[in-house]
């Protein structure tokens, strides 16, 4: 293990990574703070640039951008009360009322500290348990892995759309599009309709960028969210209103820790995501915080709970990704696509083939969290207000130009651009009609492994049907049923009031 | 049956059913069978996936006939109707994508992006004009230079003959 960690340190501690972390965190925070820009859009812009980087540097860049984007999201929520994402909505419940009392600085600093601590807790948890999880995954056979993938898709389908039927249908549509291209056993093309490019599998990057990011631009533009509002907030009455004091830190500490634990557990479950993490932590804080009557009306504990719960999801999300190859949500899917760009197959096997690389990535996450604490405070003190005034009228057209160029850079074909635009429209129509884009993406990514494991399981069961009665298969099934019941209860509790 | 009362669920379900039926119908022509393999037929998984999609479509259609769904949908529609929507803005953005897609091979990506960006900024009433030109020209050129530094070459179109 020590040798592995030493190798991992060598992988990570290069000048490129150390420079990229603060730069990516700042860029992520800037984009996250602009109303209407989501962390997904921010990551989507960066993915093509990771093409020429080493895998560790690529994921360092992406995750730093993501962490910066998430913590930057709190700025717009607190200062102008317009959360860019659903996940940041819980922060605005308490953050905006505090800002209206002249305590914007205090709320912003609390949000930054809670974000970074939530994220740090989640990453430490990830490093602590991922080896154990991967070991379990490596000992699993195709029927058990098939069971886990089906379970992941069912949970993502049922939790990410208002109507579970639409969620399941979204996941199935994703699987269907993953079937395009050669059949894995015969190599014969499927649904190519005589188009040469369709005889190969659809490239993951244009599909992901289209459905996740381009569709979001279309959606925001359609709903006229192109203008940013200016905040008219009162100035702080005294010095302590503008800063987070040591007393504030002590008061919000237990809530931050509790919310980090909740967020991290939510992150490990595929499909639940940061929104549920934030709201569940917020509602848990109502029962345990020092000032429960103030929660939702302007409480620092509320801000800390929402931010820690929201950010703790990010690192824990990588647990199912690295141990089973299952992305827990859209951001994890984007990290997966960046690794796939480098020819890496994400899953337990990666620990065997590229152990130092995996742990190098984990070290980068921890370093990014520590840098975020200091950088985040600096950013909110000096740049928070101007950032919320940047208009998306300039940004959205630029994002589109960047996305198209980036997709061409990755696919090196005009067909890649067509796929991007087509899936951008598909994603837009799905969002308009209440279908789940994360479920679609996870269906698309897991479609191929699902097919592979189904084929292998079929052959195995045909030869010896008794493998379905093996203790490992039954235990896996029982654990998954238990997790499903737990998730059902958790999601019911976290419904925003 | 009162057609006005059919909510969005009906059309969403209908779309899924039509989608599934279309692909089920074309599957025999689009996926060849392969004899002599122990594995499942190449058509098996597509058929299963499409059948379930169609089945969910039927459920959505049936859900749309439930009285409470019709009422909830009407409430939702009236709530959403309060928010501003802009089909014009959306079409401009889709148009930008399609223009760059079609024009890049002929006039080069950067040139197409400059035209598209300036047109979009003007359409969204960004003023003064020097700001439009500055952003519209500088951003695509910066992108081109950045990609070249990463050894990614965007389509040059007719500029290729002039520059090289």
Shape of chain A: globular
- What order do the helices and strands of chain B follow? HHHHHHH
The beta-strand count of chain B equals: 0
The shape of chain B, in one word, is flat
Oligomer: heterodimer
Q: Number of folding domains of chain A? A: 1
Structural class of chain B: mainly alpha
DSSP summary, beta strand count of chain A: 2
Largest beta-sheet details of chain B: none
Low-pLDDT sequence parts of chain B: 73-82
Q: What amount of the residues of chain A lies in strands?
A: under 5%
Number of domain units of chain B: 2
Q: Which percent bin holds the helix content of chain A?
A: over 70%
Measured distance between first and last alpha carbons of chain A:
47 Å
Mind describing the biggest β-sheet of chain A? 2 strands, antiparallel
Radius of gyration of chain A: 22 Å
* N to C succession of SSEs of chain A: HHHHHHHHEEHHHHHHHHHHHHH
SS strand fraction of chain B: under 5%
Q: How do the strands line up in the largest sheet of chain A? A: 1-2
Mean pLDDT of chain B: 82
Strand pairing plus helix content of chain A: what structural class?
mainly alpha
Protein name (chain A): DUF112 domain-containing protein
Organism (chain A): Lysinibacillus composti
Keywords (chain A): Membrane, Transmembrane, Transmembrane helix
Structure description:
The complex is a heterodimer of chains A (497) and B (164). Chain A is built from 21 helices and two strands. Chain A has 497 residues and is mainly α. Chain A has one domain (2-493). Chain A has a two-stranded antiparallel ribbon. In chain A, a hairpin with a 6-residue loop joins strand 1 and strand 2 (189-190). Chain A is globular, with a radius of gyration of 22 Å. Chain B has 164 residues and is an all-alpha fold. Chain B folds into two domains: 3-82; 87-163, no CATH class. Helix content of chain B is 74%, strand content 0%. Chain B contains seven helices and no strands. In chain B, helix 1 (8-30) runs antiparallel to helix 2, helix 4 packs antiparallel against helix 5 (109-123) and helix 5 packs antiparallel against helix 6. The chains are: A mainly alpha (497), B mainly alpha (164). Chain A: InterPro entries: DUF112_TM (IPR002823).
């Amino acid at each position: 293990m020590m040798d592995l960690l030493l190798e991992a340190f060598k992988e990570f501690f290069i000048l490129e990574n150390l420079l990229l972390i603060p730069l990516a965190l700042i860029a992520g925070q800037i984009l996250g703070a602009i109303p209407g820009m989501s962390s997904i859009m921010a990551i989507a812009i960066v993915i093509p640039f990771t093409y020429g980087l080493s895998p560790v540097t690529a994921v360092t860049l992406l995750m730093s951008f993501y962490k910066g984007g998430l913590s930057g999201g709190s700025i717009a929520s607190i200062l102008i009360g317009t959360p860019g994402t659903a996940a940041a909505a819980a922060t605005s419940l308490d953050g905006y009322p505090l800002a209206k009392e002249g305590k914007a600085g205090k709320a912003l600093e609390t949000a930054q500290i809670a974000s970074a601590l939530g994220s740090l807790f989640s990453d430490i948890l990830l490093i602590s348990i991922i080896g154990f999880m991967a070991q379990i995954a490596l000992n699993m056979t195709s029927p058990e892995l098939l069971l886990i993938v089906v379970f992941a898709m069912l949970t993502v389908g049922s939790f990410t759309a208002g109507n579970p039927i639409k969620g399941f249908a979204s996941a199935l549509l994703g699987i269907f599009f993953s079937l395009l291209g050669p059949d894995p056993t015969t190599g014969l093309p499927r649904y190519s309709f005589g188009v040469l490019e369709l005889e190969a599998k659809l490239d993951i990057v244009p599909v992901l960028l289209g459905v996740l990011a381009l569709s979001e631009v279309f959606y925001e533009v359609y709903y006229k969210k192109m203008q940013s509002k200016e905040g008219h907030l009162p100035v702080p009455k005294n010095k302590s209103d503008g800063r987070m004091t040591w007393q504030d830190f002590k008061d919000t500490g237990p809530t931050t820790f509790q919310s980090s634990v909740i967020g991290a557990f939510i992150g490990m479950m595929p499909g639940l995501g940061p929104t549920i993490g934030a709201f569940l932590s917020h509602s848990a804080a109502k029962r345990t915080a020092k000032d429960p009557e103030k929660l939702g009306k302007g409480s620092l504990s509320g801000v800390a709970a929402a931010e820690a719960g929201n950010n703790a999801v990010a690192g824990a999300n990588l647990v199912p990704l690295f141990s089973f190859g299952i992305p827990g949500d859209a951001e994890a899917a984007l990290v997966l696509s960046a690794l796939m760009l480098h020819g890496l197959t994400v899953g337990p096997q990666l620990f065997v083939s590229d152990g130092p690389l995996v742990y190098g990535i984990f070290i980068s996450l921890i370093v990014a969290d520590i840098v975020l604490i200091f950088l985040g405070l600096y950013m909110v003190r000096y740049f928070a207000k101007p950032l919320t005034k940047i208009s998306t009228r300039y940004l959205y057209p630029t994002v589109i130009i960047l996305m198209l160029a980036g997709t061409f850079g990755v696919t090196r074909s005009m067909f890649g651009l067509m796929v991007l635009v087509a899936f951008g429209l598909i994603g837009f129509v799905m969002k308009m009609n209440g279908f789940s884009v994360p479920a679609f993406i996870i269906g698309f990514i897991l479609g191929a492994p699902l097919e592979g494991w189904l084929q292998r399981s079929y052959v195995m069961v045909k030869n010896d049907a008794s493998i379905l009665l093996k203790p490992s298969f039954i235990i896996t099934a029982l654990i998954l049923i238990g997790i499903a019941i737990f998730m059902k209860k958790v999601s019911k509790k976290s419904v925003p009031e | 049956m009162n057609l006005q009362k059919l909510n969005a669920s009906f059309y969403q379900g209908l779309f899924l059913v039509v989608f599934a039926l279309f692909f089920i119908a074309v599957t025999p022509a689009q996926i060849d069978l392969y004899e002599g393999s122990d594995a499942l037929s190449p058509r098996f998984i597509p058929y299963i996936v499409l059948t379930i999609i169609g089945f969910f479509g039927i459920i959505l259609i049936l859900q749309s006939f439930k009285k409470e769904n019709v009422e909830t949908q009407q409430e939702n529609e009236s709530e959403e109707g309060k928010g501003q929507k802009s089909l014009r803005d959306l079409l401009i953005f889709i148009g930008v994508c399609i223009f760059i897609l079609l024009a890049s091979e002929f006039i080069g990506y950067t040139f197409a992006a400059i035209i598209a960006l300036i047109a979009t900024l003007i359409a969204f009433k960004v003023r003064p004009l020097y700001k439009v030109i500055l952003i519209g020209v500088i951003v695509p050129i910066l992108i081109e230079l950045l990609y070249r530094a990463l050894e990614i070459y965007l389509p040059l179109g007719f500029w290729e003959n002039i520059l090289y």
